[in-house]
């Protein structure tokens, strides 16, 4: 059964939402030549049951004090801190999470909403 989009309360502390957002940030960093971006805050998140879970997330990132040659899995807010004068952005993304598929997380869209 499919449902409507439901807001996720306290999304910034939700591990499943953070995993989705980190997947999008890894994709952003793969396309970005400068200092890697790290999650600052998850602003808003919604989840909808479809053929998997469709997440719609809004989050803020900032250039981090990590090096761009670090393994993507290590560029996380627990290990890297945003640079005080680094570039910051806010993104909105839609991600389909279907754990049984070969590619369990599929980024449907990502857009810069504040640069």
TrEMBL record:
The superkingdom of the source organism is Eukaryota
Specify the Cystatin domain's residue ranges.
1-112
**GO terms for molecular function, please?**
cysteine-type endopeptidase inhibitor activity
Query: What InterPro entries does the annotation carry?
Result: Cystatin_dom, Cystatin_sf, Prot_inh_cystat_CS
- One Pfam family this chain carries? Cystatin
Report the SUPFAM superfamilies cross-referenced here: Cystatin/monellin
Q: Which family does it belong to?
A: Belongs to the cystatin family.
Name the chain's protein.
Cystatin domain-containing protein
- The organism named in the record is Trichuris muris
